[in-house]
Design a protein that fits this description.
This protein is an alpha/beta fold. Helices cover 38% and strands 23% of the residues.
């Protein structure tokens, strides 16, 4: 089914899209990845659609923690919330520059703005007692055991790909200064916000905030942001063209268009494990239950065909 291009849109770029598995993470490498991302998103930006972009940070923030741990004998390590803020700013800087450069190369004067975003979480969220969010490198079981003993990290096996450092991932409850995101988006600028799921903070007695050590799932933050802003269409960009059920099995089947009710049923049947597509499906359900119309999941390079309904998996509200 061919879809019309929406007037308002939110796009979530995965952390691995900015820092693919196996990359060294050099500055030049990250600049090139940002430039490639900008080329893929240029056709969307040129539409003039009101556009908010979020991004992940899992690989980057994990490497920051490792750098701090290695140098801890000479330089005081930073807590995780500050590392999230650092990664949010660094990734958004590269994206902002690359997106504007792509626009200017086509003679388009549209601006791209990065907003450092705090996101409130519940200090009693059970996630703080059960770290599940993988960040940083993959390690062998022996390396993971050594790191756990040396640095006190929680390490967990990640979908057969190796062991990773896992941290708490509480649910986002409130996006601080979201009215500012709306104001800038209404001005016509592309807004980059909520990077890495936002800097996790808790609100105390008199409305004062303090950071907590966690990494919020960026797709969950994207869904909440879209619902509060009243954006009805959300894109989640990943490394695959479509969501699949029975993934990796002889009867694997790609999903093209599926209803909210059907995706709930498939999720309950265990088709989307926590280590892979599960968090994206959770966010899609959250977004649609919160008033969204359509979630598109697919590859970065296929953003425009996805918007038209020609590719990707489209999860639709039951009344859409």
């Amino acid at each position: 089914m061919r879809e019309e291009i929406p007037d308002r849109l939110i796009i979530a770029i995965g952390g691995n899209a900015m820092h693919p598995e196996g990359s060294r993470g050099s500055a030049q490498e990250q600049k090139q990845i940002a430039a490639d991302t900008a080329r893929s998103l240029l056709p969307v930006m040129e539409l003039g659609t009101e556009l908010v972009i979020t991004h992940g940070n899992g690989p980057v923030v994990g490497k920051m923690l490792l750098r701090h741990a290695i140098a801890r004998g000479r330089v005081e390590p930073m807590p995780l919330d500050i590392c999230v803020a650092h990664s949010q700013g660094g990734i958004a800087y590269l994206l902002m520059q690359a997106l504007e450069n792509a626009l200017r190369a086509k003679g388009n004067p549209r601006h791209v703005v990065c907003l450092l975003t705090q996101v409130e979480v519940d200090p009693n969220d059970p996630a703080f007692q059960n770290p599940t969010k993988p960040i940083g490198y993959f390690y062998t079981e022996e390396e993971a055991g050594a790191l756990s003993a040396e640095m006190g990290w929680n390490m967990r096996e990640d979908s057969g790909r190796g062991w990773r450092h896992v941290v708490p991932s509480p649910l986002p409850k409130h996006i601080v200064d979201i009215s500012l995101i709306q104001t800038v988006a209404n001005s016509g600028s592309v807004v980059i916000a909520g990077g890495g799921g936002g800097v996790p903070v808790v609100r105390e007695g008199r409305g004062q905030r303090r950071g907590v050590e966690a990494v919020i799932d960026k797709d969950r933050t994207t869904a909440l942001m879209a619902n509060v802003l009243g954006i009805k269409d959300m894109i989640i960009l990943t490394a695959v063209s479509r969501v699949a059920i029975n993934y990796g099995k002889p009867d694997q089947r790609n999903l093209d268009r599926v209803s909210l009710s059907d995706i709930r049923r498939l999720h309950a049947e265990g088709h989307f494990p926590p280590g892979s597509m599960g968090p994206k499906i959770d966010a899609a359900i959250q977004f649609l239950e919160g008033g969204g119309r359509r979630v598109m999941i697919g590859r970065l390079e296929e953003a425009i065909p996805m918007l038209r309904g020609e590719t990707g998996t489209h999860i639709m509200a039951d009344d859409a």
